[in-house]
C-alpha cells in the first residue's frame, strides 16, 4: 500500500467518525445543553444532560 492511500483511508475514517459523533450529539441534545453551560467538566456536562459519561 502506498503511504498516500493509507493517509487517505485514515482521513476518511476520521471524517466518518466525526459525522457519527456529531449526529449523536445532535440527537441527544448535548450541544443544546452545552450551549447553556459555562466551561464545564465532562462529568458536569453528563449530569446536566442526563447522560452517562
Question: What key phrases describe this protein's structure?
Answer:
single chain; 53 residues; mainly alpha; elongated
Structure at a glance:
The chain has 53 residues and is an all-alpha fold. It is built from 3 helices and no strands. The chain has one domain (15-53).
Work out the number of β strands: 0
Q: Give the integer mean of the pLDDT values.
A: 96
Task: List low-confidence stretches.
Answer: none
How many angstroms separate the termini?
Answer: 38 Å
Layout of SSEs?
Layout lengths: L2 H25 L2 H6 L6 H7 L5
3D structure, described in words:
- By secondary structure, this protein is mainly alpha-helical.
- Helix content is 72%, strand content 0%.
- The chain has helices spanning 3-27, 30-35, 42-48.
- The protein contains three helices and no strands.
- The model has no long low-confidence stretch (mean pLDDT 96).
- The chain has one domain.
Amino acid at each position: 500500500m502506498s503511504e498516500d492511500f493509507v493517509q487517505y483511508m485514515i482521513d476518511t475514517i476520521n471524517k466518518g467518525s466525526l459525522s457519527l459523533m456529531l449526529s449523536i450529539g445532535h440527537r441527544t441534545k448535548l450541544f443544546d445543553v452545552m450551549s447553556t453551560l459555562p466551561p464545564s467538566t465532562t462529568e458536569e456536562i453528563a449530569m446536566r444532560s442526563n447522560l452517562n459519561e
